[in-house]
Write a structure and sequence with these properties.
globular; mainly alpha; two-stranded antiparallel ribbon; 2 strands
Length: about 120
């Protein structure tokens, strides 16, 4: 697990960490049930405050990507992979739409028509 964050970026540190974790799940680097490092250890490796890592972990728990288990640590939830697949499909739709001249409103209308 080799994640890098940019302390000079305009994106917040915890947003960068959540992005790294989401990407790792989507690309199969993190499997269902796999344990993430304790917040303190990851914070040390990334050279950030442990509260920053905890904020990222909490957000991902709220989104259903991670689950906290007392005595077992922070793990990738079973629903994370499914959510990652949907997110990837949505990103592919946005990319294809832009390449073909569709704007945001047109893509939203198309999704509404299909659902």
């Amino acid at each position: 697990m080799l994640w890098q964050i940019d302390t000079a970026a305009t994106v917040s540190l915890h947003d960068q960490i959540t992005g790294c974790i989401r990407r790792a799940v989507a690309e199969g680097e993190l499997d269902i049930g796999e344990r993430l490092p304790p917040a303190r250890d990851l914070a040390e490796a990334l050279r950030v405050d442990p509260n920053t890592v905890l904020a990222a972990y909490r957000r991902l728990r709220t989104e259903g990507v991670l689950e906290f288990r007392r005595g077992r640590g922070v793990r990738v939830s079973e629903t994370a992979v499914q959510q990652a697949a949907v997110r990837q499909a949505a990103q592919a739709l946005v990319t294809a739409g832009r390449q073909h001249g569709y704007g945001r409103a047109e893509l939203i209308r198309l999704i509404e028509e299909l659902t």
